[in-house]
Amino acid sequence: MNLVIAQGLKETLKPEINRLNQTLERLASESDGFLGDLKSSVLIGSGKRVRPALVMLGAMLGEANQEEVQTVALAVELVHIATLVHDDVIDKAVLRRNHKTVASEHGVDAAVLLGDHIFTFAFEKVAELNRPLILQLLARSTSIMCSGEIEQLKKRFQFDLTEEEYLSFLEKKTASLFGTSARSGAVLSNQNEEIQAALENFGVHLGLAFQITDDLLDLTGDEAIVGKTLRTDLLNGKMTLPLIYFRERVSSKKDAEEFYANLQHPNGHLSGLIDQMKSSGAIRYAEERAEQEVQLALKQLEILPSGPAKTNLAALAEMLQSRKA
Predict the structure, then answer these.
(1) Is the pTM of this model over 0.90?
(2) 83-107 pLDDT, tens per residue?
(3) Does residue 52 contact residue 76 with C-beta atoms inside 8 Å?
(4) How far is CA 251 from CA 89, 248, 264, 284, in A?
């Protein structure tokens, strides 16, 4: 993508993202003892802050109260962080952002309670704004995320999962909060319902692209670069897009039986499975699907007036498309 535009996006967001990071550091320091240690381990770090960025860029479409923008940006990031703490429990992940996960270092009980604590604080901050629509959007999105996680949990080690089912999980688990974040920015800048809907759809498509890429990185990424435990999808029986693509193209009964056996017991077969994904074209197919979702996201921006908000939203989409971590 255009490096000048990318740098412009970073410079545009830098002051508000820095302010958000300072708020997260302050929230961590406000609690003493064990709770303070736990909060510091998840609130302070190198998160991408994509969801807050969507709020901030959506708010650039009009005149928005910057205190409200910061509060909503904080809330969506806190909800995201809380889901990560809980996801690491479910996935039995050891690393997150190059540090031990709460569950691996302090136990499942601490991780579940910390996630709950962060969730409730996020909703408390939004409730203080007296913005019923944003509170409703965030509550709905969080409920949808949880339902998507439950549905995917039910489908673990069910290797006949379809691409449509897989994408429905992604839309609920990841894309719903992306959509809510972008739409909340439009609400804060007093945009009409048509523009609000366009921003929400932009976020949903961007979220789908983001999670497809995340699932690809779980297969092909480098833990030192990505900064978290990888190959958890395979080990936990989650069918992702490359696996679905490959399964649908297995040519013989013997190969199919071997594939299913390796999926059930992937330890010792991981590198071979990943090599098969690459040689079959499955990795490239998933990359192309992510690219398609980015293009669908960009299509939603056509309704927006020309200006910094539109330019920077497009730049964000293109930056996420090319990420390696």
Answers:
(1) yes
(2) 999 999 998 888 887 789 999 999 9
(3) yes
(4) 37, 9, 19, 19
